[in-house]
Each structure stands twice: as structure tokens, then as C-alpha cells.
């Protein structure tokens, strides 16, 4: 199939295109230089904004925690639902939507690629089954490896080479994409009812610290030449004063980036940017965090912006969820996944008139606006932890318009208004910068060379919006922009027009991306490994790997390691 998108205002930051009127040619699912004008189907994009398909670096949309969240929250099902059509299936869920509903809603907003950031290796088969069931999108998942016993054992011995081989083995075994670390050391401690409270606390029974875990896995990540950096959920997340831990974590990695390139991605940084001694004195550390990021290039971030709404929190950080349970008294699910990770799920409602919630809302936007380089900080809600991903158009409105964010700030808790840095923040993001924080920057950070741009050879994933930058001032007409990003004029996935004016035209299967890491010497699955599986896991080794049977459309990415 050939497709020609004509005369749109194109924003393609990876290729330095900033609102130029131009045509985009598509053939066989790829962006090409030209197509046959008489054979190609034409989309007249005159007066419209053309962007690469949206990319989400961190969204909880599949796996055991998400499915448990659906079971825990029947009231969430009734709050929002999808009607069955001749093309689409019915579905339910507001903060934890069902699989098909997730795909439809992302696609309507012009998104084409999403990354599920939390996959216990033991639950990988179920995660991939749900990813397969999520249409319209390419996707991948990050296995939780920061507290996996094999990693802790080899880091304790100082054997980085063997640790790297096991991480490579795990990527192929569970079909993962990146090393995910959550509350390093704290998850293992949680198995014994404990936690760690600084990056230099010892992990029970292993005699190593969070600092050593993070530094060790950064080195492993570089040895394996993985496309994404380590994906890090810091210690002390969600605790007043935790910005100190966040800064210490970033500083401890400076010497591991001699080339000044990113070595770690700190996710949902809003939750890690609190000053104060307790909940009464909590305040924003956006100034301190942004100042550090502005002066260093070895870290990227995503927001974890909260939305004033009812939602469902879910994370592998079991100790944090227990703290949230104590604070809220809401129903709570806790899990401990054998030798690998932990987790918790709690419903939560962020309220404008709650001082802490209003402060959190302000912190996220402050960070997005005070980090000067949009290639360093990306838009997420840590769906559904800060709120559902369907709120992205609302966040875009706040980012492009001081008028929009001040209108919301005025409705928040008076004390939070006084402490907010937003009144003194005049920056408003342009459409070019929005293209960076919602697709180009995220694709670049993930090492997805065929995503996030519209250059020749890129995947033909395109989003077209009803925004004419020549005729409207987007900061003043932010409601128009918000509506446009909520319902794309067109979403094109792999060269196929799948959405028009917010309506699903056809359902397509996206692919599952995973890393096939080639090392010089492979891990030998010997009697010792199988003995460990018998002793420590509830499954035999033979039943552990994710086979091709579990991947509907598989896209293995070969990586050559230096070990």
C-alpha cells in the first residue's frame, strides 16, 4: 500500500523539522522518499499538524499487577466502558482498562508504541498474553531484575561478567527489553518485612547496598550494549525529603558516564522530588532536581504527572504501597514474587483540595518546565499511578499554556498555591517541544531507531491533529489543542489508517519487541541452575522460558554484547 500525506505542518524533532509544510510518503509500512502519485492514497493534511506516532516509555498496561488491579476494582469497570462496534470489541475500565480498550484509547490519541515497565520474570508468560491481546500498538516489557537473586549473588561476588551473562540470558528467556530496577535492595528486604532507607543501607543476607546494585547494573547494561539505559525507580519514593536520595543516586553514577551520555533513566521523577520532613512540611524539590539535570547529561527522566482523579496505584515497590495503605486505609493487595520482586496495589483519589496531592501536581509540571532540555524529560503519568494515560491531552494543555495551568492551580489547596513555583514559571512548550517529550525523546531514549521520527526508513507510524499553528496561538487556544490531542484526525500504524476523527477504522496487531542478546559465552543451564529452580521457584526451569507460542507478532532485536 502507498500513502501520501500532503501539505501538513510537520514536526519531526529527530530530523530537525519544525512546522514546515511538506509531504510524507509511505510504502509497505515505511516512510519513503516518494510514492507514485496516481497509485497512492492521499490524505490532505493542509491546515493540520503532522507528528510521528506517540511513544510511551512507561505505562502499566499488562501483566499480573494490572490484572489484579482489574479484579480489585470492579467499581472502576463501571466508570468507563467501550461499546462494541462492527470493528471493535467492547471493554471496560477507567484507570485499569481491559486490553482491547487500552489499545483503542491509545490509538485514538495518536499513540503507536508503548512500553510496559514492570514484568516479574515468573509472570512473563501472562504479561505477554496480555500484550498480545492489546491491539493497535507495538510494545515491549521491562523485566524486574534489580532484586533478582541471581543478580544480587553475582554483584555480591563482584563478578560482573557472569552477572551480565545472566541478565542477557533473562532477556531472551522472558522476551524482555530493558533492565528495570525498583527500590533497589528494598524489594528483597521487604520479603523479610524490612526496607532500605538510603543508597548505602545493606540488603539483608546479601551484604551489598542499593548504590552497588545500581552501579553494578549500569556497568552490566553497558557491557551488554542494551538500547535503553537501566530504568530506575529510586529508593525512598513517595517519602518527604526523598529528593536527597534522588540526587545521591544520580551523583553516584557520574563517573560511569565518561562520554557524557545517559546511563540511567529515572522514572516518574515527580514521586522522587519531595522536600520536607513530614507530610505537613512537604514541598517541591523541582528546583534542585532540575538544576542538577540542567548541568549533567547522564540521566533522563519521565514525569509521573498526577491528575486530580480517582485511579489505581500499582508498583513492585511493596514497602511504598504498604505506606500508602497505612496513610489511606484503602483496600490493599500485597505480593511477594519468590526470588524476584514484590508488589502492591491500592486505589487512590488525588484531590485538588488536598495539600499533598496539589503539591505533587505542581511538582510534576515544575520539573517539566524547569528542565531546560526537553530531550531529558518526558511526559508520563506512570499510568495508572499518577492517573490514566487518557489524561495526556490535559497535561499537554498545562505544558503549552500558563493560562491553563494557572486556571487549575487556583482551584487547589491554598497552602499548595502559596508554595507552588508555577506562578513564577513563564515557560510554555511549543509544538516542537511537545513532539520531543511525547515521542521523539522517548524513542531516542529507548534506542528505537525506527520510531519517533518521520525520516526515510522509519516505521510509518504517524499522528495527524486538527491544529493549524498558523491560525491559532496554542497557549491561548489550549482547549482546542487538548481536544485535538484527545481525538486524532488520523492515526496511521505501519502505513495503515487505523483512526479517523477519533474513530477506529480497522483493528491491527502490533508487534512485541524484545532483545536477543548475543554474548561470547552463553549461560549454561546446568544441574546447578535447575537445582536452584527446584529449591527457590514454584516452577521447574523447563516451564520458565517464554516460547514463541506466547508472542503473536514477534520482533526480536539482536544486540551484540561485549562479554
In the CATH hierarchy, what is the class of the largest domain?
A: Alpha Beta
SS element count, helices: 18
Which structural category fits the helices and strands? alpha/beta
- Range of strand content: 15-25%
User: What is the β-strand count?
Assistant: 26
Poorly predicted tracts of residues: none
Tell me what the structure shows.
With about 575 residues, this protein is of the alpha/beta class. It folds into two domains: about 1-50 and about 460-505, Urease, subunit C, domain 1 (Roll); about 55-445, TIM Barrel. Helix content is about 30%, strand content about 20%. The longest helix has 16 residues, at about 355-370.
Write the layout of secondary structure elements.
Elements (H helix, E strand, L loop, with lengths): L1 E11 L4 E11 L2 E3 L8 E4 L4 E4 L1 E3 L7 H9 L1 H6 L1 E2 L8 E2 L6 H10 L2 E9 L4 H9 L5 E6 L5 H9 L2 H15 L5 E3 L3 H5 L19 H15 L5 E4 L9 H9 L12 E3 L7 E2 L7 E2 L1 H9 L4 E4 L7 E6 L2 H11 L4 E5 L3 E9 L5 H16 L6 E2 L13 H9 L1 H8 L4 H6 L11 H16 L15 E4 L12 H9 L3 E4 L2 E5 L2 E2 L7 E7 L8 H10 L17 E7 L3
Parallel strand pairs: 1-4, 1-5, 6-9, 9-10, 11-12, 12-13, 13-16, 16-20, 25-26
Antiparallel strand pairs: 1-2, 2-3, 5-21, 7-8, 14-15, 17-19, 18-19, 21-22, 22-23, 23-24
Helix pairs in contact: 5-6, 6-8, 10-12, 13-14, 13-17
Question: How do you describe this structure in short?
Answer:
With 563 residues, the chain is an alpha/beta fold.
Labels describing this entry:
about 575 residues; alpha/beta; Urease, subunit C, domain 1; TIM Barrel; 2 domains; 26 strands; globular
Amino acid at each position: 500500500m502507498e500513502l501520501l500525506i500532503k501539505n501538513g505542518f510537520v514536526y519531526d524533532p529527530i530530523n530537525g523539522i519544525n512546522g514546515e509544510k511538506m509531504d510524507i510518503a509511505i510504502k509497505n509500512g515505511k516512510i519513503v522518499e516518494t510514492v507514485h502519485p496516481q497509485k497512492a492514497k492521499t490524505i490532505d493534511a493542509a491546515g493540520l499538524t503532522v507528528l510521528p506516532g506517540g511513544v510511551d516509555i512507561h505505562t502499566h498496561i499488562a501483566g499480573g499487577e494490572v490484572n489484579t488491579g482489574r479484579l480489585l476494582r470492579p467499581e472502576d469497570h463501571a466508570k468507563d466502558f467501550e461499546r462494541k462496534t462492527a470493528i471493535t470489541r467492547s471493554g471496560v475500565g477507567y484507570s485499569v482498562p481491559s486490553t482491547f480498550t487500552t489499545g483503542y484509547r491509545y490509538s485514538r490519541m495518536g499513540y503507536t508504541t508503548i512500553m510496559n515497565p514492570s514484568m516479574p520474570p515468573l509472570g512473563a508468560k501472562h504479561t505477554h498474553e496480555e500484550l498480545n491481546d492489546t491491539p493497535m500498538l507495538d510494545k515491549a516489557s521491562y523485566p524486574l531484575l534489580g532484586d533478582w537473586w541471581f543478580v544480587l549473588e553475582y554483584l555480591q561476588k563482584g563478578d560482573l561478567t557472569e552477572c551480565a551473562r545472566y541478565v542477557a540470558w533473562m532477556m531472551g528467556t522472558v522476551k524482555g527489553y530493558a533492565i528495570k530496577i525498583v527500590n533497589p535492595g528494598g524489594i528483597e528486604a521487604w520479603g523479610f518485612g524490612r526496607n532500605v532507607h538510603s543508597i548505602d543501607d545493606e540488603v539483608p543476607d546479601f551484604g551489598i547496598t542499593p548504590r552497588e546494585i545500581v552501579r553494578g547494573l549500569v556497568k552490566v547494561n553497558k557491557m551488554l550494549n542494551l538500547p535503553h539505559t537501566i530504568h530506575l525507580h529510586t529508593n525512598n519514593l513517595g517519602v518527604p525529603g526523598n529528593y536527597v536520595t534522588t540526587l545521591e543516586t544520580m551523583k553516584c553514577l557520574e563517573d560511569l558516564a565518561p562520554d557524557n551520555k545517559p546511563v540511567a533513566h529515572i522514572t516518574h521523577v515527580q514521586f522522587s522530588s519531595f522536600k520536607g520532613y513530614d507530610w505537613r512540611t512537604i514541598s517541591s524539590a523541582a528546583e534542585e532536581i532540575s538544576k542538577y539535570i540542567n548541568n549533567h547529561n547522564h540521566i533522563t527522566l519521565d514525569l509521573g504527572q498526577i491528575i486530580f482523579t480517582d485511579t489505581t496505584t500499582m508498583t513492585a515497590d511493596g514497602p511504598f504501597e504498604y505506606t500508602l495503605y497505612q496513610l489511606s486505609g484503602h483496600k490493599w493487595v500485597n505480593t511477594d514474587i519468590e526470588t524476584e520482586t514484590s508488589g502492591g496495589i491500592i486505589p487512590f483519589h488525588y484531590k485538588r483540595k488536598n495539600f499533598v496531592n496539589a503539591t505533587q501536581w505542581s511538582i510534576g509540571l515544575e520539573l517539566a518546565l524547569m528542565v531546560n532540555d526537553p530531550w531529558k524529560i518526558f511526559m508520563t503519568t506512570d499510568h495508572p499511578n499518577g492517573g490514566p494515560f487518557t489524561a495526556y491531552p490535559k497535561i499537554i494543555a498545562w505544558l503549552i499554556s500558563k493560562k491553563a495551568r494557572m486556571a487549575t492551580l487556583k482551584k487547589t489547596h491554598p497552602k499548595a498555591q502559596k508554595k507552588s513555583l508555577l506562578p513564577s514559571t513563564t515557560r510554555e512548550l511549543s509544538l516542537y517541544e511537545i513532539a520531543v517529550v511525547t515521542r521523539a525523546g522517548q524513542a531516542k531514549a529507548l534506542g528505537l531507531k525506527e520510531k519517533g521520527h518521520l525520516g526515510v526508513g522509519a516505521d510509518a507510524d504517524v499522528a495527524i491533529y486538527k491544529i493549524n499553528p498558523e491560525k491559532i496561538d496554542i497557549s491561548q487556544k489550549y482547549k482546542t489543542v487538548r481536544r485535538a490531542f484527545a481525538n486524532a484526525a488520523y492515526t496511521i500504524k505501519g502505513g495503515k489508517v487505523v483512526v479517523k476523527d477519533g474513530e477506529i477504522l480497522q483493528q491491527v496487531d502490533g508487534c512485541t519487541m524484545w532483545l536477543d542478546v548475543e554474548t561470547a559465552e552463553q549461560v549454561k543451564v546446568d544441574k546447578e541452575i535447575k537445582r536452584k529452580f527446584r529449591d527457590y521457584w514454584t516452577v521447574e526451569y523447563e516451564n520458565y522460558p517464554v516460547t514463541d507460542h506466547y508472542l503473536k507478532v514477534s520482533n526480536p532485536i539482536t544486540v551484540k554484547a561485549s562479554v
